[in-house]
């Protein structure tokens, strides 16, 4: 016998058990249904299939390479996310994640092929999710890198309400003969520094402790010598150096170091031969005012600042003295140091 009972409106339907436990599968499906439109601008003919499958498909074309080598890296954004939560702005951290990963493979001479993201959240917030994906897509398009997939996880109890975590994986390629490892660095070479765009993605735990806890500032605060509000200053986008580095003539660059966690002190030794030191003249560039506020506000040792923050230098390029002027012209950087005999460490000159 047919029933004349009418279906209840959506807002009156009983909540599904999984949604009541904090994981709304239907919400996740609705949010993710619009991803393809956001990321298709990053896809070239190499990308096969579509977003939403069990795996991203990328048909590699290594034409012109004699011995192609895949290069991969994975990273996160760290506690810079706390600034995104406080400012309720989420597109910039999406760009940060992509650009950080691109730089990490650029230092070995690789160009990016494709990127995958991971978003773990207490609960999916559609506007926030859209901002994150837009940030990923914008950075990937600018980097010539396909955004081919990712994972979005709702995990109640794992995160505080309104918070999320990000991670990204990148795969690139370099011709083995052109891969950079610092082995050609010699005494007498010069170190060129390329300007950073703010703190990038490192040192935020210390910066937040000093600026917000010890100094009592807010994201809306203004500081002397800092043009933006504190929130906008700390959310500056991590710069992508790969397009610039790719334009340098083959053979000119002997070594590259991405200045991330560990600063100049810990990152340059990763490409130094064991019997050389990198001597850095800290007076050769003007350190942005934000670092002075952090150092003074937290009474932090000057040397430690160069081990926590990039101090205004986001990438270092080591070239021979003979290539100094040409490299400066092409990179618009500045000489910040030199290679001397030593034991594979960085020595700071104040």
Write the layout of secondary structure elements.
Blueprint: H1 17-20, H2 25-32, H3 35-39, E1 47-48, E2 57-58, E3 68-76, H4 80-87, H5 91-106, E4 111-121, H6 126-143, E5 146-154, E6 164-175, E7 190-195, H7 204-214, H8 230-234, H9 242-246, E8 255-258, H10 263-267, E9 276-281, H11 289-298, H12 302-308, E10 313-319, H13 324-331, E11 334-341, E12 346-349
Parallel strand pairs: 4-5, 9-12
Antiparallel strand pairs: 1-2, 3-6, 4-6, 7-10, 7-11, 8-10, 9-11
Helix pairs in contact: 5-6, 7-11
Describe the structure.
It is a single chain. The chain folds into 2 domains: 20-178, PurM-like, N-terminal domain (60s Ribosomal Protein L30, Chain: A); 190-349, Phosphoribosyl-aminoimidazole Synthetase, Chain A, domain 2, CATH 3.90.650. 31% of the residues lie in helices and 23% in strands. It has helices spanning 17-20, 25-32, 35-39, 80-87, 91-106, 126-143, 204-214, 230-234, 242-246, 263-267, 289-298, 302-308, 324-331; strands at residues 47-48, 57-58, 68-76, 111-121, 146-154, 164-175, 190-195, 255-258, 276-281, 313-319, 334-341, 346-349. Strands 8-10-7-11-9-12 form a 6-stranded mixed sheet. A 4-stranded mixed sheet has the order 3-6-4-5, with helices on one face. Helix 5 (91-106) runs parallel beside helix 6 and helix 7 (204-214) packs across helix 11 (289-298). The chain is globular.
């Amino acid at each position: 016998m047919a029933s004349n009972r009418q279906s209840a409106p959506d807002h009156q339907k009983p909540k599904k058990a999984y949604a009541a436990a904090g994981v709304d599968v239907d919400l996740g499906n609705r949010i993710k249904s619009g991803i393809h439109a956001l990321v298709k601008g990053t896809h070239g003919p190499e990308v096969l299939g579509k977003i939403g499958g069990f795996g991203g498909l990328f048909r590699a074309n290594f034409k012109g390479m004699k011995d192609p080598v895949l290069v991969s890296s994975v990273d996160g954004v760290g506690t810079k996310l706390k600034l995104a939560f406080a400012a309720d702005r989420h597109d910039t951290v999406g760009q940060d994640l992509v650009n950080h990963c691109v730089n990490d493979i650029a230092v070995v001479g690789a160009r990016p092929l494709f990127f995958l993201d991971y978003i773990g959240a207490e609960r999916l917030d559609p506007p926030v999710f859209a901002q994150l994906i837009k940030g990923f897509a914008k950075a990937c398009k600018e980097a010539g890198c396909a955004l081919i997939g990712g994972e979005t996880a709702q995990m109640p109890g794992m995160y505080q309400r309104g918070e999320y975590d990000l991670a990204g994986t990148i795969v690139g390629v370099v011709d083995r003969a052109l891969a950079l490892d610092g082995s050609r660095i010699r005494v007498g070479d010069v170190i060129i520094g390329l300007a950073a765009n703010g703190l990038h993605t490192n040192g935020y735990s210390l910066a937040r402790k000093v600026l917000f806890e010890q100094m009592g500032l807010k994201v809306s605060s203004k500081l002397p010598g800092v043009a933006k509000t504190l929130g906008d200053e700390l959310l500056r986008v991590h710069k992508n150096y790969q397009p610039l580095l790719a334009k340098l003539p083959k053979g000119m660059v002997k070594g590259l170091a991405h200045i991330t966690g560990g600063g100049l002190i810990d990152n340059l030794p990763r490409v130094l031969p064991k019997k050389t030191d990198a001597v850095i003249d800290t007076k050769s560039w003007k350190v942005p005012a934000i670092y002075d506020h952090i150092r003074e506000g937290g009474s932090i040792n000057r040397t430690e600042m160069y081990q926590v923050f990039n101090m205004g230098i986001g990438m270092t390029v080591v070239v021979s003295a003979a290539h100094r002027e040409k490299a400066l012209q092409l990179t618009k950087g500045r000489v910040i140091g030199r290679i001397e005999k030593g034991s594979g460490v960085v020595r700071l000159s104040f």
